[in-house]
Design goal:
The complex is a heterodimer of chains A (565) and B (368). Chain A is an all-alpha fold. Chain A has 27 helices and two strands. Chain A has four domains: 1-79, no CATH class; 89-154 and 285-331, no CATH class; 164-276, no CATH class; 341-560, MetI-like fold. Chain A has helices at 16-24, 39-79, 84-89, 91-96, 110-125, 129-139, 143-153, 155-168, 175-182, 185-193, 209-212, 214-231, 242-254, 265-276, 285-292, 299-307, 315-320, 340-371, 374-385, 392-403, 408-415, 431-454, 459-467, 472-500, 504-509, 517-526, 531-555, and strands at residues 323-326, 329-332. Chain B has helices spanning 50-58, 100-110, 115-128, 144-156, 174-191, 202-208, 226-231, 236-241, and strands at 9-18, 27-35, 39-43, 65-70, 73-74, 85-88, 162-166, 194-199, 211-216, 219-224, 246-256, 259-264, 269-274, 283-288, 307-316, 320-327, 330-338, 351-354, 362-365. In chain B, helix 2 (100-110) packs across helix 3. Chain B folds into two domains: 9-231, P-loop containing nucleotide triphosphate hydrolases (Rossmann fold, 3-Layer(aba) Sandwich), CATH 3.40.50; 246-365, OB fold (Dihydrolipoamide Acetyltransferase, E2P) (Beta Barrel). Classes of the chains: A mainly alpha (565), B alpha+beta (368). Adenosine-5'-triphosphate is lined by residues 20, 26, 44, 46-52, 200 of chain B. Chain A: Residues 344-552 form the ABC transmembrane type-1 domain. Chain A: One of its GO terms (biological process) is transmembrane transport.
Chain lengths: 565, 368
């Protein structure tokens, strides 16, 4: 029995592989090329040029794919866990909440309210508080309006102090004295000299002021720099935010300024005396918050802030599977709030039905195509491909015309007397409509791979089976069908993956009961603007597709998938 | 007209015609009778209708006209799977998704043969083609020759009386092909099966068959045992198609029984045996096998006509010498001589005289 397979490794003579092998076999010194350089090096140089050329050829596409496909995917993956907004907008509050027990159902300590006051005040000046409100609103309804309201009312706290300081000394309401008290003399000189051209000299705190008045220094610096960069105004001409007055009050209460001798020392000492005086009006932060909105005295908002304070969160993912983050850990949502599990299930289930319908309808067509004479087959193929040349929107809308209650099918049925005029069938804006329209739209994706597999099955197999005594059915079932399975597999995986991510058709003909998860994703992207949740849902969809792909590879083998000849 | 209703006729084609398109006849008036146990080869150029005949016999094509009988029963209306004819295809057609054993037991399964019986038969068939150890493999894991054996075993495992083979060895290399030719004939004779074998390799046809049917243009040109086919071709197509052949064209000048005199186009006269010519004055093409041409005067018969020839080329081929001559205006005239110690090697340019026995020179029809 002669076995005529020539193993590639046994081929002797000068093949590229053998040259490499010869290069590796360097017992008696490296093999040299004609010009005396080691063969291995000159070979790899030759190959490098080839590789560079290949890389240059694919570079445009590679860059395009990276920028327009890979990067957005990674951005999406990142967005689904990213949660920096809480920590960035409320940095002090997050720190102050560190030892708050979110499960305790109690209000946090006063320090937390104090920190929240500073955070929200600054965020409101930067107009970031509403964004945070919308973000927290995903987790707890009402947060959005709470933050918007607080942004407006939070000024009141500082005004109490501002007014008292102003009554004591007009200068507390002036820009210049504040700047001299807080700012570095060199900076003041530079800012005075600044003629309005180019960049303003960056505000610097005076040496030692941070030790003397830590809170005031910090808030004033934030104020001054914000004025410079965002508003383009000189801090020398802008009176500070009221939050700075609050900070001053707290610093004077806590510290001792009697030894201070720098600029505006008299002003500061007088203010210190005022603060110590019994008639000085103060504000309790918690009460002030209550005055802004009673919801601040509901522990839930603090629990939510605490739960969502880390930079990364699993919250979006939990949301996408109908769970939520609670202080006690992840928990299932209430029955009536669960929606995504149902949507995922529906998407998978309907995609399965669509795939199955496509197999049922496509298999006979593909069989016919591959067994007809060339010319007839080509004609039929054009009919199969025809939908590709029509806009998706047009086809879907056509189904609307066909299926609606006053539509073609119902009219015909009524005309035939098969349904009563007042009993017209509801075939659209439900699952049925989605399944029908999507089966039609995805059918070519099933037929093409099946056809290309079937057309490679030589007719001699069928003849051989029949000559061996098999009936038509046995021949089909035991010989033809098993060989067409890779085509079914390829078509199914294509149709299934396409359909679980389908958007337009369910949107148009799906109504409420026939929409897919992708419609929900689109809703979150464009309407609710909850991109994190959209990203998490999309990520789950991506993972489902990858898992399917992997399972398919394990069961059928991706090598067996034939999409073309 | 031969008597087609032989009582021992196993396969019979009677006046069979076939057209695929309703315009052209691919098979024109096929008459063929095969006794049981015969190994018959259909030989012919591409497109001459061999496969079509085979497919009609197997039931995959229907005859447009005429009867095909198997063991006396007309089979025109029996579907292929009920004909019980084994088939070996050119590309083997082993089912790729089944193992070798499954391939072999397939025909037994569809015949509802019990499991133990099936296994015994599969084993016997595998042993028969010396492939006993390969039952668990898939067809793709076998070499071409091995697949060929399996295809053969599969066609034989359900013990058909008639086996059809359509160019079964076409894809194999020369050495393997010769080996398989021997094995197939050996097996066919040992099992006593009737075989219809299709090939366009004439050596294969001559070495394997009991009888060869030479096809051309949808007709059997000659149906005869190999030696007769080679030595006594009935017409110029067969003469040309089988083996190497020298032809000279001319006109019949004299007819006397089984001898005639032909005047070649350049005026020379030669002796020949009339085969399918009868009238004086008829155009003819005479055919002489290269090895039957003699240039040694001593060995030629007294009084026969000889022709002048010029040596153009001498080719040494080991066992034989092949010399190309220019004879009567034809410079593709070839003679073959055995490489014997006393054999003369002709020099190019030499002028010689050649002749032959009249019965080796057959006057055939001249195609126009
Ligand atoms: N299915 C078909 N439809 C139409 N014409 C056909 C079909 N099959 C064969 N023919 C034509 O019939 C003629 C005979 O074909 P056939 O296959 O019988 O030739 P063959 O002798 O087997 O040739 P080969 O040696 O190349 O296999 C050819 O001219 C071919 O073009
Ligand atoms: Mg053929």
């Amino acid at each position: 029995m002669s076995d005529a397979t020539a193993e590639p490794d046994k081929i002797s003579g000068p093949t590229p592989d053998n040259a490499l092998r010869a290069g590796d076999r360097a017992d008696d010194g490296p093999v040299l090329a004609a010009d005396g350089t080691p063969l291995k090096r000159s070979l790899s140089r030759a190959l490098r040029a080839q590789k560079l050329r290949a890389l240059a050829l694919i570079a445009p596409l590679l860059i395009f794919v990276l920028v327009s496909f890979i990067a957005p995917i990674f951005d999406m993956l990142f967005r689904s866990v990213e949660n920096q907004i809480v920590g960035e907008t409320l940095p002090r509050t997050v720190v102050a909440l560190a030892d708050y027990d979110a499960t305790s159902d109690e209000l946090p300590r006063d320090e937390v309210f104090e920190a929240a006051y500073y955070d929200i005040f600054i965020a409101a000046e930067r107009k970031e508080h509403t964004r945070l409100g919308s973000r927290l609103n995903y987790e707890q309804t009402g947060s959005s309006s709470l933050f918007r309201k607080s942004g407006r009312g939070i000024d009141d706290i500082g005004e109490v102090y501002q007014d008292q300081f102003e009554d004591l000394d007009e200068n507390w309401d002036e820009a210049r004295p504040w700047a001299e008290l807080m700012g570095d003399p060199d900076w003041i000189a530079a800012q005075d000299a600044w003629g309005g051209e180019g960049r303003m000299p960056r505000f610097e705190l005076r040496d030692g002021i941070s030790d003397l008045l830590p809170r005031t220094a910090e808030t004033y610096q934030i104020f001054a720099r914000f004025m410079q960069t965002e508003e383009g105004e000189s801090p020398l001409e802008e009176e500070p935010w009221t939050v700075v007055h609050t900070a001053l009050y707290q610093d004077l209460l806590a510290g001792d300024v009697s030894g201070y001798t720098g600029p505006r020392a008299d002003m500061l000492v007088a203010a210190d005396a005022l603060v110590e005086s019994p008639g000085f009006e103060t504000v309790v932060f918690r009460d002030a918050f209550e005055e802004i909105d009673e919801d601040w005295l509901n522990p839930e908002i603090w629990q939510t802030i605490k739960t969502y304070s880390p930079t990364y969160t699993s919250g979006y993912f939990l949301n996408s599977i109908d769970m939520q983050k609670t202080p006690e850990g992840p928990a299932l949502r209430d029955e009536d709030e669960r929606i995504y599990g149902l949507l995922f299930q529906r998407t998978l289930w309907m995609s399965m039905i669509i795939t199955f319908s496509c197999i049922l309808l496509g298999y006979p067509i593909a069989y016919l195509l591959s067994n007809l004479p060339m010319r007839t087959a080509n004609l039929l193929m054009i009919l199969v491909l025809l939908p590709f040349w029509t806009s998706l929107l047009v086809r879907t809308s056509a189904w609307k015309v066909m299926l609606q209650q006053q539509g073609v099918i119902n009219d015909v049925l009524v005309w035939l007397g098969m349904v009563a005029d007042d009993g017209r069938l509801v075939m659209i804006n439900n699952q049925f409509g989605t399944i029908v329209a999507m089966t039609h739209i995805l059918l070519p994706f099933m037929i093409l791979p099946m056809y290309s597999v079937m057309s490679t099955i030589p007719p001699s197999y069928v003849r051989a089976a029949k000559s061996l005594g098999a009936t038509n059915w046995t021949t089909f079932w035991r010989v033809y069908f098993p060989q067409s399975v890779p085509g079914i597999g390829a078509g199914s995986i294509l149709v299934f993956i396409l359909s679980i991510g389908y958007y337009i058709t369910p949107e148009i003909v799906g109504g409420t009961s026939g929409i897919f998860i992708s419609n929900r994703i689109a809703y979150h992207i464009s309407s609710s603007l909850n991109w994190g949740l959209a990203a998490a849902l999309g990520t789950i969809l991506l993972v489902v597709v990858l898992v399917l792909y992997w399972a398919y590879d394990r069961i059928v083998g991706i090598d067996n998938v034939k999409l073309g000849g | 007209m031969p008597d087609t209703s032989h009582h021992d006729a196993f396969v019979e084609f009677e006046r069979v015609q076939k057209s695929y398109d309703g315009i052209q006849l691919v098979v024109k008036d096929l008459n063929l009778t095969m006794p049981k146990g015969e190994f018959l080869t259909m030989l012919g150029p591409s497109g001459s209708g061999k496969t079509t005949c085979l497919m009609m016999l197997a039931g995959f094509e229907t005859a447009t006209h005429g009867d095909i009988r198997l063991d006396g029963r007309p089979i025109n209306n029996i579907p292929p799977h009920k004909r019980g004819i084994g088939m070996v295809f050119q590309n083997y057609a082993l089912f790729p998704h089944m193992t070798i054993s499954e391939n072999l037991s397939f025909p037994l399964e569809v015949r509802k043969i019990g499991k133990s019986d099936r296994e015994a038969k599969v084993k016997r068939a595998l042993d028969m083609v010396e492939m006993g150890a390969f039952g668990g493999r898939r067809p793709a894991q076998l070499s071409g020759g091995q697949q060929q054996r399996i295809a053969l075993a599969r066609a034989l495992v359900f013990e058909p009386e008639l086996v059809l083979m359509d160019e079964p060895l076409g894809a194999l290399d020369k050495q393997l092909r010769e080996k398989m030719q021997f094995e197939i004939t050996h097996l066919a004779h040992r099992l006593g099966i009737t075989v219809v074998y299709v090939t366009h390799d004439q050596t294969e046809a001559l070495t394997m068959s009991d009888r060869v049917a030479v096809f051309d243009d949808g007709r059997i040109q000659q149906l005869a045992p190999p030696d007769e086919l080679y030595e006594k071709p009935q017409n110029s197509f067969v003469a040309q198609f089988i083996g190497e052949n020298n032809t000279l064209e001319g006109t019949i000048r004299e007819m006397n029984g089984d001898r005639c005199v032909v005047q070649l186009n350049n005026g020379d006269l030669i002796d020949a045996m009339p085969v399918n010519v009868s009238q004086v004055g008829e155009r003819t093409r005479v055919s002489i096998r290269p090895e039957r041409v003699e240039f040694n005067k001593d060995r030629l018969q007294e009084g026969v006509h000889t022709l002048k020839a010029e040596v153009l080329e001498f080719i040494y081929m080991g066992d034989i010498f092949r010399t190309r001559l220019k004879v009567a205006g034809n410079d593709e005239f070839v003679i073959k001589t055995r490489n014997a110690p006393d054999q003369v090697r002709l020099e190019p340019g030499a002028q010689i005289e050649i002749g032959w026995l009249p019965e080796d020179c057959r006057a055939l029809d001249a195609p126009n």
